[in-house]
Amino acid sequence: MAAHLSYGRVNLNILREAARKELREFLDKCAGSKAIVWDEYLTGPFGLIAQYSLLKEHEVEKMFTLKTGRLPSADVKNIIFFVRPRLELMDIIAENVFNEDKLHSTRDFHILFVPRRSMLCEQRLKEQGVLGSFINIDEYILDLIPYDGDLLSMEYESAFRECYLENDQTSLYHTAKGLMTLQALYGTIPQIYGKGECARHVANMMLRMKREFAGIQNQILPVFDTLLLLDRNVDLLTPLATQLTYEGLIDEIYGITNGYVKLPPEKFAQKKQGEASKDLPTEPKKLQLNSAEELYAEIRDKNFNAVGAALSKKAKIISAAFEERHNAKTVGEIKQFVSQLPHMQAARSSLANHTSIAELIKDITTSEAFFDNLTVEQEFMTGVDTDKVNTYIEDRIAQKDPLIKILRLVCMQSVCNNGLKQKVLDHYKREILQTYGYEYILTLNNLEKGGLLKPQTSSRNNNPTIRKTLKLWMEDANEQNPNDISYVYSGYAPLSIRLTQLLARPGWRSIEEVLKMLPGPHFEERQQLPAGLHKKRQQGENRTTLVFFLGGVTYAEIAALRFLSQMEDSGMEYVIATTKLINGASWIKSLMDTPEAQMH
Amino acid sequence: MAPGALLLEAHREYEKSSQKADEYLREIKEQGMLAEAVRQCVEAAGHEYDSNTQKSLLRAASFGKCFLTDFSPEHFVATCRELRVLNAVRECSVGLPLTHTQFKQMTLQVLIDRLVYRQFYQLAIEICRYLKIPDFQGVSRVLKHWAACKVQQKELSDEAIARAVCLKVGDSLGVSYSHIAAKAFECGRTELAIKLLDSEARSGEQVPLLLKMKRSQLALSKAVESGDTDLVYMVVTHLKNEMNRGDFFMTLRNQPVALSLYRQFCKLQEQETLRDLYNQDDDHQELANYYVATSYREKRLDSRLSHLQSAVDEYNKAKNEFASKATEDEMRLLRFQKKLDDEKGAGLMGLSLQATMETLLMLGLYKQTDQLYRDFKVPDKRYWWLKLKSLAEKEEWEELEKFSKSKKSPIGYLVGGSSPQLAPTILFDFFNVKNISCASSSGLCGGLHQEK
């Protein structure tokens, strides 16, 4: 089911198994038949831990979505609520339970809080007078969820907003806890590096938590050599830029949620010979995207411009493999051919799917709108005319393009220029408010608070220095056979990944000056290992770094890190963790406030 | 004669360097009883009280062992260790004359408990260390009792006790400082309890006790330090019920993290309190945002406008000129929309300025559109785009021509040379293909991008 999790450098299946074990234990606590009432947000992440079959084995017979009103009828002994600790959900649960009590039902109620129970929520249930109805109130500690062999995410949507806008560091506490769980399974991580306020806070909490467990020696040989904690606000630019890798573009255009993408069905219509073409399917085509699919693992991190060639190469290999059947003469040879058929057929259907997706994407990337947008982005990234009002942005506003797109561009210009002149900023803001509505004044305010949009305060713009020192713009990015991470944005090398790369070699000491220009402190901590656990490294053995992006990471950044892992002389392999997988649009959206007018 | 006795005898002869030792040994070996003989000696030693006899029996066993190839030494070693412990507790100063059988029956745990109850802490700890009992069941448990007893010593100062406890307990696993502190608190030594709690690493244990001791401020700062949001909420809720509002707000003010969390809570649950909080902090910017957000929840225009007016006032106080101006504009727009909705049933309420103008153009209300354009200082460029597009879509060529003559277009019209009379047709085509962006970038309409 999840074999692809164990192929990587670090076997992340251990983490998944630990999570499954805990789930089973909880389910067994509630003896008898069960129905689960889901907080809808949790179903996606949970799907990565356990399929329905596991639940079924533990007598889960029905599943519902948490809704106001009455629970659907189900002939089960236990009702279990799987919820995030949110007050508004408590009110719904209370209503459900209250209605059930009116029916004098004899069912047992349980709550499982994910990822942590909360005093406030229990208090709320108490106020509503239903706390006593619950037999088990438990927590299911699910902080880091394995998304792929080298990728962990907390899928904590509001992490960036909470940290930078609301000064609420709950997500960082969960992060630290998640890292402690990880260390319990994979050994203490001897070295911790970090950049940014949040990174500092997480590291402090980790060290503190370690003291709390003082005495319990972790006897596991460390799997990770280094942990690098990076604040998203150290690199605000990267997520704003349009990702140009295959996976990045799928995410930009269709959005990947919990490892699945929903695509327009037209391209995927089944064409069976001899059958009259049936009605076109109307349901979107849902595909799972991860490294379990051989072809996808091969092409997802490529620049989109290199995907076509890869697909046609693959097509040739597959058709050659099918042609083999003509060469099969003896019974033995035929038998061998047949035994490979399922694998070949899977490869063929995977190829068909990705060819269709690539066609869909190509329609968009070859459009002039896409090209114009990209041109402006690249101008900003290279520092061209970032201090003036941009005509393209004005035009797009006049044409009422989606607001998120506009905000993305304006923020990008502001970030690239280290703030906009007051006059320029006000002009953009007025344009946006007049065109999209005054209610967006709150959103603009949020973006300013988060530092994505800001007036220029000092005349000094550090961006050219940073760009030059870190080589953030590479003039001749090779998209087909990349030799530098800048291929993921066709020229722009993500700052976050450059920092990671330079930490491995030659070390941050070489870029002290630039680090000081970026927000937040940078630091290094060491965690003592018990004697005897110091790794004896084989010659030529790579080191492993866990890079944790606090506030989100994009697929293009992940691709760049995978590229670094694969570079022969890098000597470092990366495992990626984050609070949330994001792209520019989903990120900006999480920072928006859109009050809906009650008046009509 | 039992083989064990014979072995003891053999050893005695051996000590005397007598060849009889060999004779006896052979006799035991011939019967194949050497292993049994050793076992008997060890067991006999266990039951002995006199340490000299214990020694000679054990020496005999050790002697016999030498002639056995695969004899497991465990029983022997264990007995030696246990005897040492038993001898120690049999000392007259302790006075526990336990037999080996009794000891086995009651288990080591119980023995340690008894020693602890009789306050032989030192001995208990040494026994634990000697027998290598895991800290959790051994040393830590003893230390816990010791500390609990220590805090009750009235003649010692808080300072001295805290120091002594910390020195001994250190970072020992399984000794909970909060447990010791709770004990101290029970004995009425709150100050000592607080000192001890300082050494507690687990905030989850620290905070509830501090609350119990009514040290709410300290509890709050410890909770904040831990980073555990739930813990902070726990203290905040406690404080809220315990203090009057003013003091509560003041307390929060000194703890920015707690204050932010409380604001988060208020955003969801107590909007009014949120306003009071901003008010207290003179946070005019946030207060203004609060009023803006509130205005959208209002169902009636006048109350919506009054909230917006409050927002304008606050933005002014926050010296946020742009926002106050924008909010004034919003109010003006709402009033305008209301007026036109009443007069013409235009259905404008809630639309953005741009959408309002668009609707007005669709309705042919050109004068009103122009009024908005002037009143709101809509940039020419955007206005021209809007008006040209709308008029072209409506095929209002006359109006379009009138408009084109009114002022020089900031976005140009066409490729140079074409007469203005032709403009509508070409514009019309060009909008219908919905290719505005392509056209503008491909240079078809060179004038489109010219700066005004």
From TrEMBL, chain A:
BP GO terms, sorted: protein transport; vesicle-mediated transport
Any single Pfam family the record assigns to this protein: Sec1
Primary location: cytoplasm
Membrane is among the record's keywords: yes
GO CC entries: autophagosome; clathrin-coated vesicle; early endosome; late endosome membrane; lysosomal membrane
Protein keywords: Cytoplasmic vesicle, Endosome, Lysosome, Membrane, Protein transport, Transport
Membrane-topology descriptor: Peripheral membrane protein
Cellular compartment(s): Cytoplasmic vesicle, Autophagosome; Cytoplasmic vesicle, Clathrin-coated vesicle; Early endosome; Late endosome membrane
Superkingdom of the organism of origin: Eukaryota
Described function: Plays a role in vesicle-mediated protein trafficking to lysosomal compartments including the endocytic membrane transport and autophagic pathways. Believed to act as a core component of the putative HOPS and CORVET endosomal tethering complexes which are proposed to be involved in the Rab5-to-Rab7 endosome conversion probably implicating MON1A/B, and via binding SNAREs and SNARE complexes to mediate tethering and docking events during SNARE-mediated membrane fusion.
Family per similarity comment: Belongs to the STXBP/unc-18/SEC1 family.
Name under which the protein is recorded: Vacuolar protein sorting-associated protein 33A
Organism, as annotated: Hippocampus comes
Automatic annotation (TrEMBL), chain B:
A GO term from the CC aspect: endosome membrane
Domain Vps16 C-terminal: residue ranges: 175-414
Subcellular location: Lysosome membrane
Membrane-topology descriptor: Peripheral membrane protein
Entries under Pfam families matching the protein: Vps16_C, Vps16_N
Entry's Gene Ontology BP terms: endosomal transport; habituation; intracellular protein transport; regulation of myelination; regulation of neural retina development; swimming behavior; vacuole fusion, non-autophagic
InterPro entries on file: VPS16, Vps16_C, Vps16_C_sf, Vps16_N
UniProt main location, coarse: membrane
A GO term for molecular function: actin binding
Residue ranges annotated for the Vps16 N-terminal domain, each copy included: 1-77
Known partners and oligomeric status: Core component of at least two putative endosomal tethering complexes, the homotypic fusion and vacuole protein sorting (HOPS) complex and the class C core vacuole/endosome tethering (CORVET) complex. Their common core is composed of the class C Vps proteins VPS11, VPS16, VPS18 and VPS33A, which in HOPS further associates with VPS39 and VPS41 and in CORVET with VPS8 and TGFBRAP1. Interacts with RAB5C. Interacts with STX17, MON1B. Associates with adapter protein complex 3 (AP-3) and clathrin:AP-3 complexes.
Family membership: Belongs to the VPS16 family.
Protein name in UniProt: Vacuolar protein sorting-associated protein 16 homolog
Species annotation: Hippocampus comes (Tiger tail seahorse)
Upper taxonomic lineage: Eukaryota, Metazoa, Chordata, Craniata, Vertebrata
